[in-house]
Structure formats: C-alpha cells, structure tokens
Amino acid sequence: MQTCCQFFCSSNSISERALINALAAAGISALSSDRGEQKPIILFFDKFDDGLCERVQELSDSGTERVFAIASSEVALTNADTWTLLHAGASEVFVWNHSADPAAEIACRIERWAAVDELLESPVVQTTLVGQSPVWKKMLRRIVELAHFTNTTILILGESGTGKELVARLIHTLDSRIKKSEFVVLDCATIVPELSGSEFFGHERGAFTSAVHSRDGAFSLADKGTLFLDEIGELPLPLQAQLLRAIQERTYKRVGGNTWYSADFRLVCATNRDLFEGVKLGEFRHDLYYRIATWIVRLPPLRDRRSDILPLARHFLRQLRPEAEPLDFDHSVREYLITREYPGNVRELWQVIARIVDRHVGPGSITVGDIPEDDRPVNGESGTWLDESFEQAIRQALSSGAKLKEIGRATEETAVRIAVDDEQGNLQRAAARLGVTDRALQMRRASARRSSL
Ligand SMILES: Nc1ncnc2c1ncn2[C@@H]1O[C@H](COP(=O)(O)OP(=O)(O)OP(=O)(O)O)[C@@H](O)[C@H]1O
C-alpha cells in the first residue's frame, strides 16, 4: 500500500536523500515540503532541544494529528525527552536504528493510522456519532481503533447524556470478529437483587418458585457478541463478587444448575461515576475494577466541545423531521444554542431541539420565537462571559509568565478559531459573528498560520 507523509530533516548524520530512499523502499512517499496537508509528519533530528519540542507542539496544536519524532541515534534522545515529545503531541517517538527496518516500522504505523482514519470518516461512524471537535475526534479515534483491531474490554466513563451507550453500540458495530453475534445490554441500575443471578447467568427450570422454564442469561446471550453493562457503578457489592469469575474466566453456571458453560464475549461497561474513587472508598471491588478497566475511554461533556453543538443540533433537526424540507437555525438561535449550558449534555441538547421542532411552523429558518418560554435565557443571563472562569484563565496565563501582547493574541486567535469552527468553516458567517470583514478575518488567519510556522 502506497502511503504518503511529510518529512522534515534537521539531521547531519544521515542525508535527507538516504532517508527519503529508505522510506520509498517501504512504500512511503515522503514530501519534503509543507503543503499544508493533514498528512503524517516525520521530524528527523540529531539533537533534542526546546525548538524541536515547540515544533511538535505547534504542529499538534494546529491540528496535525500524527507526528513522528525520530532521533538519528540513541545519544540524541533520553527517556525524559521521549516523554516530553509525547506530551507535546507526538504520536510516536523512536530512534531510527531501534529496529532492522525502521522505514517498514513507520510504514506499518502510517498504514494503521490511515485505516483508523478511514473508519473514522466512514458513514457508519459519521452518521451515528456526530462531532468534529479535536477532543471528540481524539477520543473517537481511540474507540475506533480498539473496536476494530482488538476485542479487548473497554470501560466508558462520562457524565450522563454524553453518548456512552451510543459509543458502546459503535464498538459492537465496528468489531471485526467473524461470526459476530448480538449486542446485549444489561442496565445494572435497574437489576432486582433477587433476580440478578438469573439476569446474568440464566437459570434452570425449578431453580426458584417462578422458574417454570429454564432461561438464558446475559452471558449466554452475549456469546460471540458484546455484553454491555451499563451503569456498572450501581452494581451492589455482593453482585460484584458473583460476576468476578464469569468476567475473568468467561465461564458461569446457571442458577440452580451444576454445569459450567463458557461464553466468548467482548465486555464493554459504562458509568457516570468515578469508579476509581469508588474503589478507594470500598464501594467498588478493586479486583472487578481491574478486570473491566483494561482500556478506559472518557467521553467529554458537551461544555468541553462547544464547536460540536451546532452540528449535533442540525443532526437532531434532520432526525426529528426526516420527511420535511431541510431547515436551519437563524443567527440568534445559533448563538443561543452555542452559549446555553447543558448539564444533561447531548441528551439535553436533543430535548431542546425536540421542543423547538414541536413549536416550529412554516418553511423558514428556526427563530427565537420557536424557543419555548422555559428554555429562554432569563434577563441578564447572556453576556456573562466575563466571569470567574475567564478571570481564572487570565490569572493562569499571567502566572505562567504570559505578557499582555501574548494574552491578547491568544484571545483573538481563540475567538477566531471558535467562530470558524462553530460556523463549520463558513468564513463569511464567522466574520459576521466576530464583527470584522471577511478580508480582515482572512488576513488574521493567514498571519496566525505564519506565526505558528
Ligand atoms: N455524538 C453524538 N452524536 C449523535 N447523537 C448523540 C451523540 N452523543 C449522544 N447522542 C444522543 O444523546 C442521547 C444520550 O446518549 P446516550 O444514551 O448514549 O448517553 P449516555 O452517556 O449513555 O447517558 P446515561 O449515562 O444517562 O445513560 C441519545 O439520544 C443519543 O442518541
């Protein structure tokens, strides 16, 4: 498979041509100039220094998601440097001669990343889980990779309404096991303790008074499929003990039976609780925790991905009016949706849109009059952006040594980025929101790009 990357060499010990030839032999065509494309980038260096780190940071901040930092020799890279580069945003850091064929190693990684990105952009992902914000995409990329290339156990953490169940279903959909079977959901918050054994393990006929027939439980139903234990943080301690063996060994006995059965399932659990805190408080068994938390994925709350609000709102609008002509929100409604608080996260946004749709009539855009009275901001609620969190951010900037010019520039750049993201790249609309001309916005963006290079 022919793959492509950008390539920057600041090494004197290996010639750029020799590296490009080695990469080409492994099927990677390396472009040595910056074409502004979102290709993986290889930074080849002789010496770790602050400049290298800043370069990695800039690339990663500007949206380049795959950066290789490759040292020409072991002396160029200490362990501490490796971690510093990873924290700055590098996806991979290694020494060129760490293996017999380093170019092939790079090719393997690029190939995997390309496969993950292809899945990420596929209709099955894009039409179920809406969101393009960097924090969301980063999380989703991890999910997609785990779902498709492994059958590992995954614990999904996140506030209520952040999409945990949807993500669990996506994991099942993308699971590449041959002969994959069902997605089985068990809500641990609603299990009646007396019937819990039967719910999980099934029962034999006559196992208890109402057991007139034998019955399969969740472990059996999920055989060759996925078992999703929702709200696992609500599971009472005695039940946690009962589940240990079945989860560890994938074997269980039905209630009232003596035969051991085995079930081959992928386990996905979700909770909005801080499970690790629960372990410390003795509310959640630590041995169970370590069995379900092979991989932990944290879903961001909606307030941390505000640029996804409008795309989500438009997605719900289409879902709620499948037959109708496409509609959009007018400027004030867009502003309202973006700035409103959503303690119930995406579910709350869905409900707001559902209420707006209930009220809307006519073919024109959705306007503020469509927002139900109870959802409208009370007087004085808008314009509260100069609040404590704003002060806190400025305080942090000052205490980390940032000067007024730098703070001003960062604030402007952030406002521009948010407006452009919120308006999905429509520069005219972003300029109108920012109160500048299109041309002024374009110039600002160009100068921000230049200063980040
Ligand atoms: N990224 C998303 N794209 C589209 N719809 C979403 C997204 N995230 C959540 N939703 C929708 O929001 C609602 C809540 O999602 P879901 O039930 O998966 O959340 P949850 O985290 O499991 O909630 P809870 O903890 O309360 O069970 C659903 O209607 C779901 O379809």
UniProtKB/TrEMBL annotation:
One of its GO terms (molecular function) is DNA binding. InterPro entries: AAA+_ATPase, AAA_lid_NorR, P-loop_NTPase, Sigma_54_int, Sigma_54_int_dom_ATP-bd_1, Sigma_54_int_dom_ATP-bd_2. It comes from the Bacteria. Keywords: ATP-binding, DNA-binding, Nucleotide-binding. Residues 129-358 form the Sigma-54 factor interaction domain. Gene3D superfamilies: 1.10.8.60, P-loop containing nucleotide triphosphate hydrolases (3.40.50.300). Pfam families: AAA_lid_14, Sigma54_activat. GO terms for biological process: regulation of DNA-templated transcription. This is Sigma-54 interaction domain-containing protein. It comes from Nitrosospira briensis.
